[in-house]
Amino acid sequence: MLLGFHGATTMTSDLETDVRVSREAGYRGLEVWAEKVDTYLRSHTLAELRALFVDNGLVPLSLNALVFVGFRGEEYPQVQQRCKALCEIAEAIGDYQRTGFGGWPWPDDGPVHGAEPVRFARHADGRIERPGPGR
After folding, report:
1. Tens of pLDDT, residues 67-84
2. Which of 10, 29, 37, 127 would disulfide-bridge 123, Cβ 3.0–4.6 Å?
């Protein structure tokens, strides 16, 4: 499992900020909010979008489009067009199917923390924090 940052968490920031914050926090992946990609692509190319991820050592985990895509009745043709555009963007910047989250080093996709559930947080500086008893 690759821990990634979710771009909707920082709704008011732009994509470049999400990428920077994700890298600085030690994440290797970013779940990209589609509306932020739209804004970015108004002044950048798909090649620049891909380079943004590559240069920052991040894998785009998904394009989150749930804000737009849903049961929309007569708007279905626009939904189809939007989905096609998002697929083209995903293909241009890479996706899980092609990258395996940027090179998954373990032999399978199962959990890697063992059979017993253990709560902890690994900080960007490498420090591991565990909750006290009863938490």
Report:
1. 655 556 777 788 778 878
2. 127
